Structure formats: C-alpha cells, structure tokens
Amino acid sequence: MKRQDRSRLGAWSAFKLWIQRSLAAGGWSQLMVPIILALVIWLLLTGLLAFLVRIGSVSPENLIPLKHSLDGENIWGISFFHLFSNGGQDLMVQGPGWLYVMVSNVLVALLTAVFTNFFDKAAINYLEGLSDYRVRNHVAILGFDSTSADLVRQMVSGAYGDDILLILTTYDIPDARAALEAVLSKKQMRKIILLKGDPSTPGGLARMQVADAREIHIIGDEAPSDALRDVHTMECLAGFADLIPAGSRRKPCYVMLEQRAAFAALQTSDLGGRLRDRFDFFPLNRYEMWAHRILICRSLDPDPAGFLPLEGTSGIGPDSPDYVHLVIEGMTPMGIALALEAAHLGHFPNFFSHRNCRTRISFIDKNVQAGKRRMEADFPGMFTLAHRRFVAAGDQPLDDAPWTLPSGTEHLGGDFLDFEWEFIQGDSSHPAVRQYLAKAASNPCARLTAAVCLEDAGEALASATGLPREVLDRAVQVLVYQREGGSVVEALQTSQEVRFRKIKAFGMAFRSFDLDLVNELVGTAGAFRKDSAGTAEEAVASKSEAARMWSNIYNASHIWTKLRSAGSVDGTIPDGMMDILAMTEHNRWNAEQLLLRFRPLTSGEQKAVLDAGEGFLAAKGRLKREQMAHLDICSWERLAEVDPEVVQYDYNFVEQI
C-alpha cells in the first residue's frame, strides 16, 4: 500500500483520542493529562501577566507579596508563586496583586471541578465507544462476534498493520476491548477504535464514515437467529449505498453470511445497481471457509502438515481403481458445507476408465430424510443426474439398499456424473451403521474420510472416538467438529492411544475467518478469466459477474487435485496428461454448475437451441439468463457434438496451471 493511502486521523481527533486513552488507562497515563493541562494553563496565564507588565498595566513590584523576597523582573517566579502556592493569602498584597491572587484561586477552584468532570466523561465516552473521530482511508468493520478478535489479529499482524480499524458494534464495548487485548499488543491496540452503535441503522452507519473508508468488512452482531443476523447484515449493506457518492471509487466489501442459503444465492446473483456501482462485493460463509481450509490441500508433499485432501497422501491417477468416500455424520450447516465442497473437488481422471469409481458422499443422521428433501429442493438439477439412495438403519445390511439412477438423460450423453449421494437414517452407534462403516473402511479401493459434524461438541467427540476400529485405523483422516475449541482433540493426537492419532478438530468459531484464505479467493477470482483463455465473450455474457467469480474460484481450487492426479512433483503437467485432465475438468465444471443451481437442458430445449442456426449463442444465453439452464451440462462426448467450440475451454483452463 502506498504511503499516501494509509489511514490517518484528523488533528483534533488524534488529540482527543490521546487524551481519552490516557485518562482511561489510569495510573501515570491518567496523571499526565492534568499535569500537562495545568502547565499549559500556567503558561497561558504567565504569558498574559507578562503582556500586562510589558504594556505597563501592571507593575511587577505590586505583584510581590509583603514579607517575601522575589525579583520583580522574575515574572515566571511570580506566576508560579501565585498559581501553585497559596497565593500569599496570609500576606498583605500591594496594588493589583490581590486581583491576581483572587483570579488564580477562583480559576483553580473552577478548573478543578470542570476538568474533573471533563476527564471523567472523556474516559467514559472512550471506554463505552460513544465518541466520534474524523478518520480517512480506514478499514471499517461492522459488527463484533466470537470471530472478530482473531480477524483483527490477522489484520494488524499482516498487510493491515498501518491501517486504522474502525469497529462499530452493539456488543458490549468493554468486553470487545478485553477480547482484543487478549490477542493484541498495546502497540496494535492503538490502531483499533471501537464505537458503540447499531450497524444496521443510518445513525450507526454515518459514524463509520464509509465514504472515506478504504475497505469494508461486515461481520454482523450476534442475533437470536442466523436468519435475523443475515437480515441485519444486508440492511447494513443497503444503508451504505446512500452514504457513498455516485461515481466514487468502488470499495472492497466483504460480507459474512450465516445462512448457507443466503450465501449460495449471492454466489450467482449480482447486487442491485446502487450497490453494484459502489462496491466490489464478496460474500463469505464461515462453514464454507472451514470446508475450503480442510479439503483444499495446496501442497504436492505426499505427507503435508495439517489436513489431508480427500484422496489422502497420493493422487488418484487415470488407471487407479480407487475412489473417494466421504462419510459425514450430522446434516448440520457444517456437514452440508463439507459435502458440497467435496462435490466440487472430488473429480479424478480414472472415472473414464473405471465408471464405478464415483466419489461417494454419505450422510448419516437420525433426521436425514428431512435434510435429503432440503438438498433435493436446493439442487434439483443435480439430483436428477446423480446416483442417489436413501436407507434407514435396521436389521438388514445397508449395502443391500438399491440406488436410484438417472433416467431420460440420453440427450445429455447418458449417465455422466462422477459423484453420488447416500443418505443413511441413523447414527454411528447403530450396529448396522457400524457394520457399514467398518466394511467401507476395509475396502482396499476406498479413500475414506470420516467427518463428525454434530453441533454438540461433546457428542461429536464421543462419536468420533467411538467409530469402528477399522475407520480409526484405515481412514485418510477423522474430522470432528469442535465449535468451542479443539484442545481436547489436540491432546488425543499426542496421547499414547495410537488409534486416536487421525482424529483432527476443525470448525472452531474463533478461527472461522481466515484472512489469508479470503485474499487467496479474491486473487483467484480474477486469475482464471474466460477471456484470457481465448474464449468468445458472447459465450459468457449471459452469466452474472458473481457466478463467473465463483466459477473461477472453484476452478482454481481444483488445480492441486489435478496435479496430484497427474503425478506432478513440481507443479507442471506431465506429458500425455492434457487430454484426460481436460476431460476431468469438464466433469468438475458440470458439478460446479449444478451446485451453483444451474440445470441441464431438457431434450426439447436442447433441440431448440441446436436448431437456432445463427441465433445459437443468443438462444443458449437466454436459457442461462432466464431459466438457469446450461446447454453444456452434459457428458464430455456429447459436449463435442452440441457445442464443439467450448471443448477448447477445458484445455485452456488446464493449460493455465
């Protein structure tokens, strides 16, 4: 960041903030303020006295009390004597000296009362976040919750170290300050200004001076429900638009949304005109961020530190008979986020030689039927194409349950999706479920990851440690959701119980906001532009800016999976792998579009587009725009028939690696 772009306080605001912080700090800092002010007053009065003596209005000798020896020319000594002693009240004072004594004593009495009240109120205003300050080029943070302290720590410890962070919240300000002081140094705390107010109201927003802010983060305050919190967050965002003049530079605006549905909707929908013209909008979701952090391994090291990718310590190559199996206990927001991330990432080149090697995503939950219906309603296009089954844990082995296969997809190239969904009603303690898990972990071709995503941390830990021995021994890793903290799981990893070594905690609320990950996502959003891959602009004009941005992010996230599948050790694509990786990329793209709520065309729609002649692109774009239906959601072979020009896109994306 250039020096002229750094945050800065106005001169009076900087002076006021220094006074308030000194008074609020107590001890010597609190004492220094009245001492300095007393000295300033003394200097002013002495200057006035010297001026009166200079113009002859007052004789120095008349200011000197009787029975006291002072040099009549020593104005500083005379002033000090009258102001900081008893003023010579016990002595006879000649001439106008009595007036100086009276004024000095009255001023001391009045100023003592006035400044005592002033000091107390100044300290209280600062401590309670009631004062306002003039600031420019600052980072505006709206809301404060359990993630905020760690977010601020990441900011001031990194690229935001020279910025002033202005935080507005309804949260108790002393508690917020205590949370920040627990993770920041005193020097870092000087960059933080806390204000008390409601971020969703015009009055609160006006205090944030967003027109002069460099960047905006809307975290949101705690609310009785996630839905209400997201409503307040969007009200806050809408209120900003009226405070930023039209034609101003667009400001980066990061918005944390609690509900997966709200986040997903904004992944494909551009904001309205006023908001779009004023912000570079980037929605975030804490569950999605954790899923990214866990499943996207940005390393080609066969034994990377931290979390492992779905395929484990080695890639799944074109001739491998292996497949990924992710088992999730708990259809909670965290569990669903992991499942959807796995659907984005679980695409491997061996599907084209081993059609049964589909990535399997299995949910286990006592109320899995309700969750299944919700997912089918959210992603209807995906569930018409995917293998899927529901089974209730009972006396029969779970593997005996039949699968529902797609039908009526001949015009799309047949059965082409390389991932499948399984919904098991029950819990991991049920004998039938335990038998199923043990068998799944024992399959030599399965790369199994188990994730316990129950909301109750104690219940989740008990379930994870109680998994069948085959899972604990052979799984790639066992993930356990620990919202409040992962110290217990960390202790298990270092214990002598070898069977617990693969258990890893994730989802801690205080570590939900990963600033490095956000910056990486923002960077990759612009790194894989379709026009840079040599594609026709008309072919993508019908897709929203938001959908293109997230398409780029998901594309970039799969790079490491492709490299491991290709056996790369240095980040380059080995010879002879380009074709199979391009085919794999199309499978990944199919999943991405379905998860962004696009659907394939019906046979009638497909025929109408193919018969459109010169209006082919217009017809294709109209269906994407109006129906969220995409011609190119089909098999690789069928794509070459219905839209041959876009086949090159998959090659271009792989070449960009």
Helix amount: 40-55%
The shape is elongated
Whole-number average pLDDT? Answer: 84
C-alpha termini separation: 28 Å
Structural class: alpha/beta
Number of helices: 28
Describe this structure in words.
It is a single chain. This protein has 28 helices and 17 strands. It has a seven-stranded parallel beta sheet, sandwiched between helices. It starts with 7 loop residues before the first strand and ends with a helix. Helix 1 packs across helix 5 (97-127) and helix 2 (27-54) packs across helix 4. It is of the alpha/beta class and 657 residues long.
Secondary-structure blueprint of this entry?
Elements: E1 8-9, H1 11-25, H2 27-54, H3 60-63, H4 75-84, H5 97-127, E2 135-136, E3 139-142, H6 148-156, E4 165-169, H7 173-181, H8 186-189, E5 192-196, H9 202-206, E6 215-218, H10 226-241, E7 251-256, H11 260-268, H12 273-278, E8 279-284, H13 286-295, E9 323-329, H14 333-345, E10 359-365, H15 368-378, H16 380-385, E11 387-392, E12 419-425, H17 431-442, E13 446-452, H18 457-465, H19 469-474, E14 477-481, H20 487-493, E15 503-506, H21 515-527, H22 545-557, H23 559-565, H24 578-595, E16 599-600, H25 603-610, H26 616-627, E17 629-630, H27 636-642, H28 647-655
Parallel strand pairs: 3-4, 3-6, 4-5, 6-7, 7-8, 9-10, 9-13, 10-12, 11-12, 13-14, 14-15, 16-17
Antiparallel strand pairs: 1-2
Offer a concise description of the structure:
With 657 residues, this protein is α/β, with parallel strands linked by helices. The longest helix is centred in the first third of the chain and has 31 residues, at 97-127. The chain is elongated and about 110 Å long.
